[in-house]
Write a structure and sequence with these properties.
The protein is built from 7 helices and 6 strands, in the order βαβααβαβαβαβα. It has helices at 33-42, 54-57, 63-78, 110-119, 133-141, 154-157, 171-180, and strands spanning 5-8, 46-52, 86-90, 127-130, 145-149, 166-168. α5 links the parallel β4 and β5. The longest helix is centred in the middle third of the chain and has 16 residues, at 63-78.
Amino acid sequence: MSNAAVFLDRDGTLNVDKGYVHLLQDWEWIPGAIDSLVALKKAGFLLIVVTNQAGIARGYYKSADMEALHDAINHELKQHGVSIDGFYHCPHHPKFGDLRECNCRKPEPGMILQAHIDFDIDLGKSWLIGDKYSDIQAGLDAGVKSILVMTGYGDTERNLLDGNGICEPDIASACKYITSHS
């Protein structure tokens, strides 16, 4: 396996988490996110989004709404010479919808492991960036080096790492860390 990837949480990591973001008009990039994606792509990484989307299970929006948003995100990114190689989402929630248990909802590593198969990813050469402990746990359980960013929920979830984790202020700092340690 030769492909290295950076797995990216979405809300709170790439964009400002405004709660159940599924419309382009509500999408707001975290400062430095687009430049970071460009830099990671130039460094040879695949870019894979792995995102829990409980709003689908709760009935707030449909998978098609989320997919339209992801298409719009990639359209914007292409203007910067980059795109997300794959979007993976978990539409489940343990208290809502038909399926109450799954292997894809973070902290489970299912989305990462599926992308590993789909894109022939070397997990040992790959990274995850997220703003929640569940993101970090999913990455570590999949064998991926993981970075908690302080945007989104990161500042309040940092104590859950018990000092055993890489923490960076934001995606731009995480990008610099990854490119200097790969």
